[in-house]
Amino acid sequence: MLQRFRNDFVAWLIERHPSFWLRLKKLAGHRLGEDRAFLALHAWDVRAGKAHMQRVEERYNLWTLACAVRARPGAYAEVGVYRGGSARFLCAAKGDAPLHLFDTFQGMPTVNPATDGNFYEGEFADGTLESVRACLVDWPNVHFHPGIFPQSTAGLSSDGSLRFKFVHLDVDLHLSTLHCLEWFYPRMVRGGIIITHDYGLLEVPGVKSAFDEFLRDKPEVVIPLWYSQAMIVKL
Question: How far apart are CA 71 and CA 189, in angstroms?
Answer without folding.
Answer: 12
